[in-house]
Design a protein that fits this description.
single chain, Immunoglobulin-like
Length: 242
């Protein structure tokens, strides 16, 4: 009886440990691994075992935790005292997952629901790298002289009605002096990547008496077949916006 009480408050209770094949993934990639459940000092019935890909974004002055995707690993089962159970896992990293730039946090949250007891859980920090198409766009921007200056993951109610990651680039090369800043938002899908571009350029001449800068927006849909001349296509798109 005493061991049952201790298990309910977390002492000598079931433990879970999520073990991934690696810790770096890109949006859309399948993460593989296993969840190890270790029984405590008494038998416990697990209602379900689930995984969630989580991040945090800014909404005005608040920091909000977002569940980007989740999956149930197993439904109701019982783990006996001292027993070790292993569950293989496959989880797709959601396409909307932000990249790990400028300390944008992304983690895998594992939880087991136990009735009338402390729920065991596990948090594993993930490194989210660019997908092949995202990497191609970033490389093309580098070729054009742009360098990443900052990244913000925040709720955007006017444009997207959801949290998005905005990557801000400073110009170099032929665009130095022509524009002030280039803002890029990635909207990935299964077979393509929509790239939303926003150019901030300084107002000149008569207009500079009333406004300090203009903003111009555009977009480009990137597919794998475009990678060989992507820098030139981005160059033309940006010039069309200034």
């Amino acid at each position: 009886m005493f061991s049952n009480f201790l298990a309910r408050i977390g002492v000598g209770a079931t433990q879970i440990d999520t073990q991934l094949s690696k810790n770096s993934f890109y949006p859309g990639e399948i993460a593989e691994g296993r969840v190890v459940v270790k029984g405590g000092s008494t038998a416990q019935e697990i209602e379900y075992l689930k995984l969630q890909v989580c991040s945090q974004y800014k909404n005005d002055d608040s920091t909000v935790t977002a569940v980007l995707g989740e999956t149930v690993v197993s439904h109701r089962f019982t783990v006996q005292p001292g027993e070790t159970l292993t569950f293989p896992i496959q989880l797709q990293i959601p396409y909307s997952t932000p990249l790990s730039y400028y300390n944008t946090p992304v983690w895998l949250y594992t939880a087991a629901a136990i009735s009338a007891a402390v729920d065991p859980k596990d948090n594993d920090r993930l490194n989210i790298a660019p997908s092949p198409l995202q990497a191609a766009v970033l490389e093309a921007l580098t070729q054009l002289g742009f360098h990443l200056h900052s990244s913000q993951y925040e709720y955007e109610g006017h444009k997207y009605h959801r949290p998005v990651q905005e990557l801000e680039f400073r110009p170099g090369g032929e665009f130095r002096g022509r524009i002030k800043e280039l803002e890029v938002v990635f909207l990935p899908e299964g077979d393509h990547l929509d790239v939303i571009l926003e150019v901030d350029r300084k107002a000149k001449g008569f207009a500079s008496m009333f406004v300090s800068e203009f903003e111009t927006k555009g977009s480009l849909r990137v597919t794998p077949s475009m990678q060989h001349n992507l820098a030139e296509q981005l160059r033309q798109k940006i010039y069309s916006m200034i």
